[in-house]
# Entry
Amino acid sequence: MDWFNELLWGQGVAHSVLLLAVVIAAGIQLGKIKVFGISLGVTLVLFVGILLGHFGFNMDPKVLHFVKEFGLILFVFSVGMQVGPGFFSSFKQGGITLNLLATGIVLLGALVTLSIHFLTGTPMATMVGVMSGAVTNTPGLGAAQQAFSDLFGQVDDTIALGYAVAYPLGVVGIILSMLFVRYIFRINFQQETERLSIEEDSLSHGAMPVSLVVRNPAIWGKSIAQLSELLKHREFVISRIMYSNSNEVDIASADTVLHEGDKIFVITTEQDAETIKTFVGEEIQMDRKQWIPAKSQLVSRQILVTKPELNGKRLGDLQLRRLHGINITRLNRAGVDLVGTHRLTLQMGDKLTVVGSEPAVAKVEELLGNSMKRLDHPNLITIFLGIALGVLLGSIPIFFPGIPQPVKLGLAGGPLIVAILISRFGYKYKLVTYTTQSANLMLREVGITLFLACVGLGAGGGFVDTIVNKGGLAWVGYGFAITTIPLLIIGFIGRYFCKLNYFTLMGLMAGSMTDPPALAYSNATAGNDAPAVSYATVYPMTMFLRVLVAQLLILLFYV
# Structure
């Protein structure tokens, strides 16, 4: 039975894999249990890890540290790839407000930490550890330990212990704060979902069809190319034309000439629709079937862009209208319809609506790819190149005047920022950033469960002893105050004064605490990407501030 003892209590690879598998499987299963209608999901992996760690199950410290950090990198990178395309537009549409609120949470947390330090006399090093655990920020813990070590040549163990005892209740405290805000404001999820849809529609630049009749004498006798030049700052595509003298429908080309009374089928945005209507003539109500003549061979088909060589090319560069006599009226990207203008840049996974004759559309389908098999194949080069660049960015020291120790974004902040940038701008450098939703979800869930299992196993050994014999019980209370007081204050301000959607507010609260389990809970509760978008909007700034504040508190009190 030596082999069995080695498997259970040894330090080998098989032991580590078995231990992680048991912790994760048990945690996920227990996380499905609902108490008062609420389940904590993957967060239970953390507590199963603590339980087994308390009873002596452990891993090689170096292996534990590696798996924990690698799991965190996988999680934040997949989150960045998911929300990156909407990150910058979200920043314009209220991101400044979200980041200001998140900054308020960070500063209030530091203020509560200082208040507890002066009221109780708890050493600042211990309080910084408690604060890092309360806000579930591992990079802040590392930054505080490094700053203390650089000053005194040794690490203060109470920093890590404070982190360990405060972390579990920190995770729970964030979720409890979300639930408390939900209870106080009597949040109705259906109403919040409808409100979110209305907000997205009001901010949408999506494509919409309009049927118009030509009434403006200034454009009689002009070609569509000339009309496009006159309205070059507007987004629109004229797909089909019904001639006034024959009532025949034809595909509109650049050389098509407009006459009085001609009817045109236009794809444009809500923002530009009124301008197009005013300039051309007047809007008329026509059934879509009227734009498909009975004697015509015109077809409308959705075609996927699956050829990697098209990634990053502009739609106009392909000259599909001139060479094949077809029109691309709209482009669907990640569920959002965009007007198919010549300036639009293609990305892998884009879905184009193509109108033309059957042979022409078939030829365009061949040129674009339209192969689901290609989309199902993961683009691992982009993923691992992005992780490598993220680790490099997170390791760069950033110096500030008057602060002797440099600040770093760490292994969480760096990969997240790079993932956001690659998913938004990668096509410009011929990087294929498309990943299926199922692949992204798998990568994300594997990362977060590995991270939580390792944090639990690492904290479990000294967890009970710290609470019972070393004053750790008080630290738990301090940490809970540091977690909940800033969240409840800013949660109230965000909901009452800033009128934030509750799903967006959940992502803000999770992101301001840089807490992946809270994000996982928020995503599962909301059933949409709103928490993930607001989480990614505030995460980079918050991560930087958390690391900076942790180091500043050590340096200001011990230098």
User: Anything to note?
Assistant: DSSP finds 21 helices and nine strands in the chain. Residues 127 and 318 are 61 Å apart (CA to CA). The first helix runs from residue 2 to 9.
